[in-house]
Specification:
The complex is a heterotrimer of chains A (308), B (262) and C (284). With 308 residues, chain A is mostly helical. Chain A is built from 13 helices and two strands. Chain A has helices at 16-33, 35-57, 60-65, 81-112, 115-129, 133-152, 160-184, 188-196, 201-212, 214-230, 233-238, 256-263, 272-307, and strands spanning 69-70, 77-78. Chain A has a two-stranded antiparallel ribbon with strand order 1-2. In chain A, strand 1 and strand 2 form a beta hairpin. In chain A, helix 4 (81-112) packs antiparallel against helix 10 (214-230), helix 7 runs antiparallel to helix 10 and helix 8 runs antiparallel to helix 9. The longest helix of chain A is centred in the C-terminal third of the chain and has 36 residues, at 272-307. The radius of gyration of chain A is 26 Å and the shape is globular. The two termini of chain A are 52 Å apart. In chain A, 50% of the residues are buried. Chain B has ten helices and ten strands. In chain B, strand 7, helix 7 (185-198) and strand 8 form a beta-alpha-beta unit. Chain B has 262 residues and is of the alpha/beta class. By secondary structure, chain C is mainly alpha-helical. Chain C is 74% helix and 1% strand. Chain C has ten helices and two strands, in the order H-H-E-E-H-H-H-H-H-H-H-H. Chain C has helices at residues 3-40, 46-50, 63-94, 99-113, 116-130, 137-161, 165-173, 178-207, 234-243, 250-281, and strands at 53-54, 59-60. Chain C has a two-stranded antiparallel ribbon. In chain C, helix 1 packs across helix 10, helix 6 (137-161) crosses helix 8 and helix 7 runs antiparallel to helix 8. The N and C termini of chain C lie far apart (52 Å). Classes of the chains: A mainly alpha (308), B alpha/beta (262), C mainly alpha (284). Chains in contact: A-B, A-C, B-C.
Chain lengths: 308, 262, 284
């Protein structure tokens, strides 16, 4: 056998160019890693900059606590309370629909369905998350609103209730997939331990598995709530967009995102109304930011717990 | 000072720390070129950690600190200005515990290293691939199906492919981390035969916990041990394999070899 | 009645109720898709797809609207893919386990939860006004790209994490640099996963209305001649047709909804099939 060594070996050391290219690529990759932080900071900064004049002229607290929303009258009133109340109603109705249905579905497919059904189910749910919200708004207009009007004997079906139901459907994929992940992450030894004690599957599920996954399920609900508060097109199309504070969910209402989406197109760029809408965006951003942060830290803690 | 034959290592007071915990400390040894050196010892004794020092793969694990002096043919491998890790690894190849071929064809697996180091001409690559596969004793089995996906090979064939892949960069040293432990006895035997053939041209350092294997294939044996959990592991002794297995100089080596622990 | 038979009955009841909930969610998803197909399919023919609207958008087709959405989505991909994939590579291959990277991940997770209308506001302030792009495809695509970024980063990172560490080490031990290892070994293997996740993210962007409401779209616009023109887009067109026009033309409303949903469904199905074919090719 011939001796291959020492014959074809090139000289030691890489060319400087390839080293420089490597360094450059690495730098670009590292910078890209920072974009999420930079963007989140930029969003907060721009919302704040554009709402500065509203905050100094109207006052942040008087906007948040103001009961009247007459942005176009001569003595304009910029109270957020009608939108805040509407947002709350929509979120409450949505959560009343999607929390029980979503969590129950997650428990079923995680604990009782066999693997093939589970796979198909998850892909359908993922697909559902991809239906554009404007399409759901259209379906709501054509099916849900008339049904709400006749069933509850209302003047109009375009109410916080109708919007809330549709938003609830929109939040289902979020809740199902995150709650399912949480249940799936529970180590199977825990289940085995309970089953071996003679408990049924269902007893095991509600005594062991659900409590063990409770923080993840809680995070799923929080994230669903974040989505419900931030959803725009469905509420814009279904909530009715009334300016008064709704006392019940069966009245037309407006929400924070709906108000922004409905009015930003009609305002003078740089004017007071424009700035107030950015202040509304800032409030919305801060609320969802806190919710997402809380949900994420709950999820992270759970991830750490099962990692060992 | 480079002498022929090449491929020797000189370790002096080498220690390795993972974070704040020192795993291996105070190892000094000479690795003789073109021979097989086996690193033996119970699990957790730092064999693999020490092996990875020789091609600086510990760098890739993050948070690992290597201290002391390691000279490869007299060249300090810890000094990037003298020897870039990339060049070091071209000259010091590694075969892993579990076969880990790339998800590509047999040919592309073997050609990966030479391409990385600048070989572009097709004819040259063909020759390198053929030679490497022959040296790894795989050529006869795959010469008609070089385009086949590497994952279609058996476990033993995959491991020999990994050996061929490492040989294709013409290394002077081959590091093997329990290369046969994931394989069946017949494949294991084939790997041992390959090693016996390869040591004529390359230095081989092999980690194994199989003492019969160490006795069969190695010329020299180093015994490592971590005597208690709060002390780092170290080298107990190194010497000629026949002597180590028949007349070890250290009581602890004798107990280990005769199967009293580990 | 014995305890165990009561427990068994409770189990059967629980299973039924949970199953019904799961079925409800499933039938909502399938029912909505079915309803859109049922209402819209009849209006969609070759002419609808290839002609411009006529008679104040009551007749003709939605060709410029489709083209507008394609433009927006392609530009979104151009902006979001390189940055998103590189950020995913950073997190999986380079990032040390430190507080900083923990904050990075937190920021990415949080970005995914920012309401779409907030992205719209941000786009108006930064891209439309500050950068001077006005209402244009570029401004809209940049806004959508910001929104899609977390999806692309997360799916890239996840795809990269699936790859065994041994494979990276094999390449590094052959003397390949980290960058070459990523280019030649890691990305080819992770590619299908990255592409799947990215396309799903982009298909969501294609269906978004709120972010482009004030950054890109117009009620009527000719086919854009460049990226700085404003454009029509399927979701916005659907929104306007369904709510603002005095006499909503059913062909326009349901036909547009059908095209939008069918387009997104097709993307999803094609990607799913392609991915499972890729998965069969590579198995550890």
């Amino acid at each position: 056998m011939s001796e291959p060594r020492n014959t074809t070996r090139p000289s030691i050391g890489r060319p400087g160019i390839s080293r420089a290219a490597e360094g450059l690529a690495k730098t670009i990759i590292i910078i890209s890693g920072w974009t999420a932080i930079a963007l989140l900071g930029a969003i907060a900064a721009y919302l704040f900059i554009e709402s500065r004049s509203a905050i100094s002229e109207v006052g942040l607290w008087s906007m948040i606590s103001g009961e009247l929303w007459y942005p176009t009258s001569k003595t304009a009133q910029y109270g957020f309370l009608p939108s805040e109340t509407g947002t709350l109603w929509v979120a409450i109705v949505a959560l009343m629909l999607c929390v029980p249905v979503g969590v129950a579905s997650a428990v079923y497919i995680s604990e009782f369905a066999d693997k093939r059904i589970k796979d198909v189910y998850k892909s359908v749910i993922e697909f559902m998350a991809g239906i554009p919200s404007v399409v759901l708004g259209l379906i709501g207009l054509s099916l849900l609103a008339p049904w709400v009007r006749t069933t509850f004997g209302l003047d109009t079906g375009l109410t916080a209730f109708a919007a809330g139901l549709m938003v609830g459907v929109m939040c289902l994929p979020t809740i199902i997939s995150i709650a399912e992940d949480a249940l799936h992450a529970v180590p199977s030894e825990l289940r085995m331990g309970s089953l071996a004690l003679g408990n049924t599957r269902w007893q095991t599920t509600y005594r062991v598995t659900i409590p063990a996954a409770s923080s993840g399920i809680f995070a799923a609900i929080m994230l669903g709530m974040g989505r419900a508060i931030g959803e725009t097109m469905v509420v814009l199309m279904l909530a009715g967009n009334s300016g008064i504070i709704p006392n019940t969910p069966f009245l037309p209402a407006r929400t924070l995102p709906g108000t922004i989406a409905g009015e930003l197109g009609e305002v003078v760029r740089g004017g007071q109304h424009y700035s107030v809408l950015f202040a509304m965006g800032l409030v919305l951003f801060m609320v969802t930011f806190v919710i997402n942060l809380a949900a994420d830290s709950v999820l992270e803690r759970q991830r750490r717990r099962w990692r060992r | 000072m480079v002498t022929n034959p090449t491929g020797s290592f000189d370790l002096e007071n080498v220690s390795v720390a993972y974070g704040s915990e020192t795993a291996v400390a105070g190892v000094s040894m000479h690795i003789v070129p073109q021979s097989v050196t086996a690193l033996i010892g119970p699990s957790g004794c730092g064999k693999s950690t020490l092996l990875r020092c020789l091609n600086r793969m510990n760098d890739e694990l993050g948070n690992v600190k290597v201290e002391g002096s390691i000279r490869f043919d007299g060249l300090d491998i810890m000094d990037n200005r003298l020897l870039d890790p990339v060049d070091l690894r071209r000259r010091v190849g590694q075969v892993f515990q579990k076969p880990n071929p790339f998800p590509m064809s047999i040919y592309d697996n073997v050609a990966y290293g030479p391409k990385t180091h600048g070989t572009r001409a097709k004819a040259e690559l063909d020759a390198v691939v053929e030679q490497a596969l022959k040296r790894a004793a795989l050529w006869n089995e795959v010469k008609d199906q070089l385009k086949k996906h590497a994952f279609e090979l058996s476990g033993g064939q995959q491991q020999r492919l990994c050996i061929a892949r490492a040989l294709a960069t013409m290394p002077e040293v081959l590091l093997m981390d329990e290369p046969a432990s994931a394989l069946d006895p017949i494949s294991s035997q084939q790997i041992e035969d390959t090693i016996a053939e390869l040591k004529k041209s390359v230095t081989i350092v092999i980690v194994t916990h199989n003492m019969q294997q160490a006795a069969r294939i190695s010329d020299r044996t180093a015994f490592m041990l971590r005597e208690s959990m709060d002390r780092p592991a170290g080298l107990i002794e190194i010497g000629d394999t026949r002597v180590m297995f028949t007349n070890p100089g250290d009581k602890r080596t004798e107990s280990y070899i005769t199967g009293r622990f580990g | 009645m014995s305890r165990s038979s009561r427990a068994r009955k409770a189990e059967a009841l629980a299973k039924t109720l949970l199953g019904m909930a799961a079925l409800l969610a499933l039938s909502a998803a399938l029912g909505f898709i079915g309803y859109i197909f049922y209402r819209g399919a009849g209006y969609v023919d070759w002419a609808f797809l290839t002609q411009a609207p006529r008679k104040f958008m009551t007749e003709g087709g939605i060709y410029p609207v489709i083209v507008g959405t394609v433009y927006l989505t392609v530009w979104t991909a151009l902006f979001a893919l390189p940055v998103g994939i590189m950020a995913g590579i950073y997190l999986s291959e380079y990032a040390p386990r430190t507080v900083t990277t923990r904050i990075m991940r937190l920021a990415i997770a949080n970005m995914a939860g920012v309401p779409s209308i907030v992205y719209g506001l941000f786009g108006v302030a930064l891209f439309v006004i500050q950068m001077g792009f006005n209402r244009s495809i570029v401004a809209g695509a940049l806004t959508l790209a910001c929104m899609t970024l977390p999806v692309i980063i997360t799916s890239t990172e996840e795809a990269l994490r699936q790859i065994p560490t041994d494979l990276r080490h094999a390449s590094l031990a052959l003397g390949a640099t980290k960058l070459r290892t990523i280019r030649k070994v890691i990305l080819p293997v992770a590619g299908p996963g990255i592409i799947t996740g990215s396309i799903l993210g982009l298909s969501r962007a294609a269906g978004e209305t709120a972010p482009i409401l004030f950054t890109a779209v117009a009620f009527f616009a000719p086919i854009a001649s460049g990226p700085l023109d404003e454009t029509m887009a399927l979701p916005y067109h659907l929104y306007i047709m369904a709510t603002q026009s005095t006499k909503p033309a059913p062909n326009m409303v349901w036909g547009t909804a059908f095209v939008l949903v069918a387009g997104i469904s097709m993307l999803n199905v094609v990607v799913a099939i392609w991915r499972s074919a890729q998965r069969r090719k590579i198995r550890w």
